[in-house]
Amino acid sequence: MTVTTEAPVKETPDAGGVPSFQVTMRLRRFNPESDTEPRWEDHTLTMHGTDRVLDALHKIKWEIDGSLTFRRSCAHGICGSDAMRINGRNRLACKTLLKDLPLDKPISVEPIKGLAVMKDLVVDMEPFYAAYKSIMPFLITTGNDPSRERRQSPEERERFDDTTKCILCAACTTSCPVYWSDGQYFGPQAIVGAHRFIFDSRDEGAEERLEILNDREGVWRCRTTFNCTDACPRGIEVTKAIQEVKQALLFRRV
Amino acid sequence: MQTHQYDVVIVGAGGAGMRAALEAGQRARTAVITKLYPTRSHTGAAQGGMCAALANVEEDSPEWHTFDTVKGGDFLVDQDAAEIMAKEAIDAVLDLEKMGLPFNRTPDGTIDQRRFGGHTRNHGEAAVRRACYSADRTGHMILQTLYQQCIKHNVDFFSEFYVLDLIFNEVDGERRTAGVVAYDLASGEIHVVRAKSVVFATGGAGKVYKTTSNAHTLTGDGMAIAYRRGVPLEDMEFFQFHPTGLAGLGILLSEAARGEGAILRNCDGERFMERYAPTLKDLAPRDVVARAMANEVREGRGAGPNKDYVLLDLTHLEPAHIDAKLPDITEFARTYLGIEPYTEPVPVFPTAHYAMGGIPTTVETEVLADNERVIPGMFAAGEVACVSVHGANRLGTNSLLDINVFGRRAGIAAAAFAAKAPWVELPESPEADTVALLEGMREREDGERIADIRRALQETMDANAQVFRSEATLKQALADIASLRERYDRASVQDKGRRFNTDLLEAVELGFLLDLAEVIVTGALERKESRGGHFREDYQNRDDVNYMRHTMAYRTENADGGAAVRLDFKPVVVTRYQPMERKF
Ligand SMILES: Cc1cc2nc3c(=O)[nH]c(=O)nc-3n(C[C@H](O)[C@H](O)[C@H](O)COP(=O)(O)OP(=O)(O)OC[C@H]3O[C@@H](n4cnc5c(N)ncnc54)[C@H](O)[C@@H]3O)c2cc1C
Ligand code: FES
């Protein structure tokens, strides 16, 4: 990815984009070494064309305040590092174009909710990964491996395609009101992770996974608010996947 | 400071690191140290596919694959290594399938395969369907599948730990591996990790350039750390510029688009690749296509208001076909450029993509100390390494293959070494240099900003050491790098804290980039020929008499305390294919 802090407009082929504009970024900041409480901080910047929220954060970090802290890596929506609450909604900073947000008022950027804030926009991801690991997110088979590939028809492959797209960014889980209020619920992502294997024709671990999801009252906690589906930057139909897992539990049939 | 002890330490949790961990972890006490959470690694960005001569959809053979790899690499490939890779490719793909990777399927349920640049049947007759894929997120699926297997096998990860130094010690006059020094981002604490075997799998260095498909975090750490400790770097002047980056942004649109039938056109709508590569056209190797594109722009046939890009045309493809085979990359065009690929051609231009060079290794992934000797206990695999299977130009889908084949080999070799090798004593205060580096940077008040120096470095590399190079541009780049280095020595960071100090780590990463840029340009200046990804305007032909050899770059200390690059050379391993003119 190009460093676009000062991306001259001519460099970004302008496709119906706004050439250059003023934007106020309202950031939720917290320095564990000096702050007792998080605080808000505003920066007004000149940004260009197809710049994204991540470009604005970089501009602040690289030109104004190097201590601003956030995670990012790929910068094109594939690594899942930079899920944030942008104007009150969970999104990836690298996939959210500034020009698509209302620019007449400040754009608020906060850490995702429900996980402990470590510094500025960085949260503790360990509980999130622990929930994922708990549903045995790996192919379970019995008997000897075949010498060639396991056969799977294109239709069988298609059956679980949607949930293979997950990049573990936590946008869904940390948009879920039940997750915020309940220390036990392992959240939508873990169910998506389970779905990916439960509906894979090659997998033989569905029973075990369904037990886990059932025993801990996992899926039943879902109140179908659709926050997770709205939040998913990969367009996964999260709520639908959860419904399918519920159906499988009720009828023990996948 | 904390200390730990493991038989095997793997640095990096991309495809290569995790593939190694799955092998080493079942044989020896293993830890993986990674500056990113494993699933954030850039392997996840790979789109198009991983090749193997499975022959599921048409006749194919590993021998043809070897030939294509050697020829695509413009004969700088070590042919023994290429042969191993092509042979082990089949099991590498089947292993992933057995681990659960959801490959796209043929109607009869086997793994489907598609065409990719430079892969041909019977030594160049026509394009062959060799790339196994999972829509256009093959790398994502490889990364997820390997991570899932690591969970299954309880692999020990130190996530968000940066390795900043490699520890060697002399034993009977021989340099041996003793461990690594790591920095915990969350706490700012230093960890010394003692190990019998160290595997570097830290990926590429695309951030040397401004326009790149690589992640912000791909700063060549492993290469630079090894280089600073006296390990040579091989063939660093060979960098691949991928033809189809989104213009102005560098975000990649996979070659799979052309594999599925997309066509490159200039401002006149001409399919210009017919002129440059009459047989393979748009699917000629990347260096050929990237130069053709840059040449179209240079000669005034570029598209757009500034005539500074060409167009990738998918409009003749069925939208349903695009959705099935290329969903993610068409979404990139929509999201980032606001272009609808069903109906509009997409603006593209070459983007810095892949480091063919790296830490030299044997086919067993042992790191070379020089042309003959290995460094006991030190291994490398993946983009950080140079085996060399990619030579002067890597073929598409050969890297996902490389990380699996040589990642696996590295895990096995590292564990086998640890099983028989004695422990090497740690030298006194192995962390001292790292502490000095970090504290020097942290304590310096009121220096220039790191980001400004980084931007200047990336701009000079784009301007002077990209698709077209010459003595004049390369000398300019070297002069710029030297002055940027002086500025770097006076730069400072604003964040003086301990916890999550990414400001400080970006400064360290810039130091790595500066070292690597100097090595790249020095090698390019010395190589007075054009071969694969390295094109000299002042020496436009390949020169097998003088330059069919690998470059080995060593860091040497000057009398005045500074450092310089010293170049040496290593013969290419030729087994069955004699160099021939590359025609596509
Ligand atoms: C956009 C894109 C598309 C591509 N498409 C294809 C394709 O279709 N087919 C193909 O064959 N190839 C493709 N490639 C190339 C291929 O994806 C990469 O070369 C390959 O994935 C590199 O894998 P790796 O394991 O070596 O490194 P990476 O996956 O980059 O992993 C590097 C690891 O090292 C760690 N690390 C780095 N520095 C440190 C440090 N100092 N301390 C600790 N850890 C560190 C990181 O945390 C990370 O885990 C593509 C590349 C890109 C950029
Ligand atoms: S930086 Fe990778 S998803 Fe945004």
Textual characterization of the structure:
- The complex is a heterodimer of chains A (254) and B (584).
- Chain A is an alpha+beta fold.
- Chain A folds into two domains: 3-123, Beta-grasp domain (Ubiquitin-like (UB roll), Roll); 126-251, Fumarate Reductase Iron-sulfur Protein, Chain B, domain 2.
- Helices cover 30% and strands 15% of the residues of chain A.
- Chain A has helices at 53-63, 126-134, 154-159, 161-164, 177-181, 187-198, 206-215, 227-231, 238-251, and strands at 20-29, 39-48, 83-86, 89-92, 107-110, 117-119, 122-123.
- In chain A, the strands form two sheets. Chain A has a five-stranded mixed β-sheet with strand order 2-1-5-3-4, with helices on one face.
- In chain A, a hairpin with a 2-residue loop joins strand 3 (83-86) and strand 4 (89-92).
- The radius of gyration of chain A is 21 Å and the shape is elongated.
- The two termini of chain A are 41 Å apart.
- Residues 1-18 of chain A have low confidence and may be disordered.
- Chain B is of the alpha/beta class.
- Among the domains of chain B are: 244-348, Alpha-Beta Complex (Flavocytochrome C3, Chain A, domain 1); 432-550, Methane Monooxygenase Hydroxylase, Chain G, domain 1, CATH 1.20.58.
- In chain B, 35% of the residues lie in helices and 22% in strands.
- Chain B contains 16 helices and 20 strands.
- In chain B, helix 2 (62-72) packs across helix 3.
- Chain B is globular and about 65 Å long.
- The termini of chain B are far apart.
- The mean pLDDT of chain B is 96.
- Chain B: Belongs to the FAD-dependent oxidoreductase 2 family. FRD/SDH subfamily.
- Chain B: FAD binds at residues 12-17, 34-49, 221, 383, 399-400.
- Chain B: Keywords: Electron transport, FAD, Flavoprotein, Membrane, Oxidoreductase, Transport, Tricarboxylic acid cycle.
- Chain B: It is found in: Membrane.
- Chain B: Pathway: Carbohydrate metabolism; tricarboxylic acid cycle; fumarate from succinate (bacterial route): step 1/1.
- Chain A: Its EC number is 1.3.5.1.
